[in-house]
Write a structure and sequence with these properties.
Radius of gyration: 15 Å
Structural class: mainly beta
Largest sheet: 5 strands, antiparallel
Order of helices and strands: EHEEEE
Number of helices: 1
Strand order of the largest sheet: 1-2-3-4-5
Shape: elongated
Distance between the termini: 26 Å
Helix content: under 10%
Bound molecules: zinc ion
Length: 102
Amino acid sequence: MSIESKILPEYKLELLPMSAEAENAMGFPMSTPDIGKRSRLGGTPGFIQDADWPICPYCREKMTFYAQLDAIGDGYDLADCGLIYVFVCFDCYETKSFVQSY
Ligand SMILES: [Zn+2]
């Protein structure tokens, strides 16, 4: 794991609810203002726990960080305010995702 993988340009991802039900499901208590708003594409992962950078099972190279996805709201919390991390290998088009939480 000596060579850093490619880093994609960074984009903030924001939720645009497509129904009243979706809008009502969004949000967390006021004590956690950034929770639910940490979704983004590209850049580098904001690991909650120790860095866990996957290796492609086919070419054995470090995978590229693609996105981190936050929970929609308190009713769909990912463990304890966790995030889903998504990685891709641009040579093999293999992906890997996992959750880290507090
Ligand atoms: Zn690969």
